[in-house]
């Protein structure tokens, strides 16, 4: 695919890539995905298609919808899909069953989580009137936090994610933090930040969009209060696949949803004009679940069967380390600057490189079969999905990048 010419020392790195691929315990998982010879480094935006999905979706459409029709709500398990699939996601993010529900977008779940968390915090003390928000957050979280603040009599306080532990105090109701920064790939300290927010008497909401499926999150182990995330990146659920909401068991009885739709009612088919919330994760539901997307996600999650998240993390770090080494070797010094932390403890599963002419460079990379993405104004973003990315591909991507940067600009 690539028309790159091999640099003189390519054999050393290509040989190393072959050895790393041969030793890779997740190597066979790639067969579970529909991939070609494009080097796909954009799984942090839209994960690749798991092969099991098309047949499963065809069955859902033709048999469950086409033949069973309304019977499928019960007989095909449609009604309980949000909690059932929530438990599957829960295993990947370290949540015991019964605490994760799948549905709606991440944006909508940020809204539910932040408003409900403020309500819980204000039960502890009405003086808690600040929502601390990671200042580099993916914008939707910030927009929604602003609206949640207006609704709850709070103000938003933007703070660098790393400074959240020092910024929280007696007036903090909630801290809303991204586990991995979408732009730089920086991994934030979830255990330490959660503990600091708790010491201040507040609650924490984590956005896991860029960490779930790429590294162990440990929601239960670290005592996280609430969390949200999408499923179309490292969980490969497909375009617009439903997001999820985690509410720790201890908070579920006080989780007062700002969107108390009929699906979250204790007796949805009782059609009671008065609202009585369901127990458990179902309290996070709103309206009728988007069954086609949801069942595509359920089929996609089968690729995770028997995969330890720790193995995924080990491979992710090996992939990003190797990519950084290849870039250093092939790309002329000073042409790119990595904005992704070098320390493993601070790195997610992507590498972001700042460079001049990043837009045209990414367009040319894509043309040559290396797909990452461009984030304005000057960042090339490469995501590494351990379930299907191989080391030889990583070496090739760096080599094509060097060629492209030698020609563009
Ligand atoms: C960190 C983060 N939060 C929130 C979102 C928005 O998700 P949604 O479009 O599902 O609302 C994204 C989307 O890429 C994201 O990366």
**Overall pLDDT level:** 96
Strand tally is 13
* Helix segment tally: 12
Shape: globular
Please tell me how large the radius of gyration is.
Answer: 22 Å
Structural class: alpha/beta
Main β-sheet description: 7 strands, mixed
Topology as a string of helices (H) and strands (E)? HEHHHEHEHEHEHEEEHHEEHEEEH
The percent of residues in helical segments reads 25-40%
Low-pLDDT residue intervals, each spanning 5 or more residues? none
Description:
The protein is an alpha/beta fold. Helices cover 37% and strands 13% of the residues. Strand 5, helix 8 and strand 6 form a beta-alpha-beta unit. Helix 2 runs antiparallel to helix 9 (291-300) and helix 5 runs parallel beside helix 6. Pyridoxal-5'-phosphate is lined by residues 105-107, 138, 140-141, 178, 182, 207, 209-210, 230, 243.
